[in-house]
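Memo to structure team: turn this sequence into structure tokens by end of day. - J.P.
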Amino acid sequence: MQDHGTTDTHEHWMLRALVVATNGPEPDANPRVGCVLVDPHGLLVAEGWHLGAGTPHAEAAALEAAGDRAAGCTAYVTLEPCNHTGRTEPCARALAAAGVSRVVYAVSDPNPSAGGGAAWLETNGVPIEGGLLEREAERLNRSWLHRIRTGRPWVTWKLATTLDGRSAAADGTSQWITGPESRQDVHDQRARCGAIVVGTGTALIDNPRLTARHPDGTLHDHQPLRVVMGLRDLPVDARVFDDSAETAHLRTRHPREVLAFLAEREIHHVWLEGGPTVAAAFMADGLVDEIVAYIAPVLLGRGRQSVSDLGITTMADALRLEPTDTRIIGHDVRITTILEESR
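Reply from structure team:
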């Protein structure tokens, strides 16, 4: 009889599966998933992770690596094994066919077209345990789970501001409020997202490339979709139209239309870099889930505010944010917060 182990043992292997899952591409349309196969003696047999859309799922990768040794193993998977046939066969059935004797997973799959693997396994005689390290696994795929559950991408609003809340000087200049270390951090954050959104105002005034670049100026392997929202025309030679990445000009001022377009493309994390007007529009519609603020030790006294009027007239109505991370980057401070309703 297989020794199912202690809770500590289960957590050890699920933590390993979570680490393995991070090898997957974060901006991909699919979730990052890790799978670890452990034999009845508590020894690691194989592990696998999902490399992106169209490639074998984590379970299939682990089973392929294990071969005949998968029989009798416990499978630790960060997401409930799928039960649908798409570009790959159902993972639940592959696990059962390989003779896996037990499946432990962290998060139930909320996707109605893919879920149900746990129930199928249990019905077919494979013991199941769910919810192990669920919070950690939720954090791993926060934006993907958000899109599946709500129908829209997770929106991170990035702003660079002075100590007195200015995003540009009185003459309109805004480069550079923050230091080079913060600007590089922004590039690294962009590479983790599926799309960058700005308004036509930012595109016309700053003429940004909106790419994710390394310190030496070369491009990251992954480039997010560049999205410009607004009714105004852009010059055909605008840098946002170069061949560094794909660009979409959405002729709308409505954030919900932008997010519906991106959700249709299975993008689950949006990096919002628009100016004060675009940021206020997203905030007013309740469509900002997280704010990453780069605050520079700079005072201007006058100039453009970092966000336009939100219609708040009293402290009782102030938007309350929950800090999740604070760190010093160069001479600047980066504060990451989420809105209370996004927790």
